[in-house]
Each structure stands twice: as structure tokens, then as C-alpha cells.
Amino acid sequence: MAASAAYRIAVFASGGGSNLQALMDRMRAGDLPADLAFVLSNNSNSPALGKARASGAPAYHVSALSEGGEDRAEARMVDLLRDHRADLLVLAGYMKPVPSGVLALMKNRVVNIHPALLPAFGGRGFYGHKVHEGVVARGCQFSGPTTHMVNDRYDEGQILLQRVVPVPPGSAADAVGAAVLQQEHAWFWQVIRAFAAGAIKPLPGDEPGRAVDASAFWAGLAKQP
Ligand code: GRF
Fold this sequence. Notes:
This protein is of the alpha/beta class and about 220 residues long. It contains eight helices and nine strands.
């Protein structure tokens, strides 16, 4: 009997790639049973591309500039996802909206990590450091990452998992960002593993106001020593 094919993950990233690195480390350690299909960045200088290449994964710079227009960039993304037979598209610090053709191809198979407790501090304008500046300016006592499905409404897809990070009074935005990022690295791979195994399921219909079924995921965590 043929061995079952490995689950194949494509990652889009724009920046430093620390989440990508955390995922690659877990794949290499065997904690996340999946193959990195390829990494794509809209930013030719993204360290994420270098991290992917260093690990032997294909890495592509794809942007409207590199391809000669938004439509061509979208077509290239679709081709890459097809050619590399990606089962899941992971957005790990990807700063651009995902084109509709990509969402159609990967329906219910695109996940993102956002560095705040959505729906607070999400949507257009809330990215990178601005998220943590917003949390501090508003005097929030807690923040934390949200992993969620991606649809055509920015940061509004069904929530998969959130983790809470305390924000002590007087915290600097940088410190909040570092604490949240640590939780992202600790949890993103677990969400992806559970998603791949069907232990976290998005609901059909894609209504943002509804909760995903994550009961199997939580039951699995409760059994851990
Ligand atoms: C993370 O904070 C993530 O939540 C957000 O972008 C940041 C990416 O960081 N979407 P890195 O490139 O993975 O280091």
C-alpha cells in the first residue's frame, strides 16, 4: 500500500519570517507532520525568503511589480499553489490582501495569524507595530494572538484560536509585541496541526459571527500531561 501523501503547506510572508521559522522548526522536529510546499513574499528583501531557501524550500518573490500587474501576480500565485499541490495556505505576516482567485482556489484552506484579540485592533490600518500601539494607547490590560480563517473581509474570518497575554500598566508597545509574538510561535503550529488533522474545522458558510468547531482540539490539549 502506498504511503499517504504528506500534507503540504504554502506560506505567504512579507516581513521577518519568525513565524515561518517557528513552523519550519516544528516540521523538522516532526511535531508538525507536513511539508513546506513553498514560501512566497511580495517583498524581495523579506528575510522569510532567505529562511525558506536556507531550509531547501522553494521561495518566490511575487508582486504586482515583479509580475507586471496585479492580475498577473494573482495568476502566478494560483499557478504556484496548484503546481506545488498546496493543501493549506498559511499567512505568516503577509501584509497584502489575498487576491480573490487565490481565495477561490483555496476556499476554507487559508489561515492567518493576527497579533491582537480580534475583532479588536483588526482591519485595515491595524498591522505590525500599529496593532500594539493601539492596544497600549487604549489602556488594554490584555492582548494576544488570534489565528483565523481568511476570507474576502480583512481580519473577519472565523476565529480558530486565541491566546491571552497580560499587558501590565505602563507597558511599551514593543514589549507587548514581543510577548504576543512569543505566543504566536508557541501556538500557530498547534493550530495548523489540528486544522490539518480535522480537529479544528471551519463551519461551512463562512459567517464571521459563528464559532468554529474546535472541540477535538481542546479535548486533545486536556489529555496532554
Ligand atoms: C506577526 O506578529 C503576525 O501576527 C503578523 O505579522 C507578524 C509577522 O511576524 N500578522 P514574523 O514575520 O513572522 O516575524
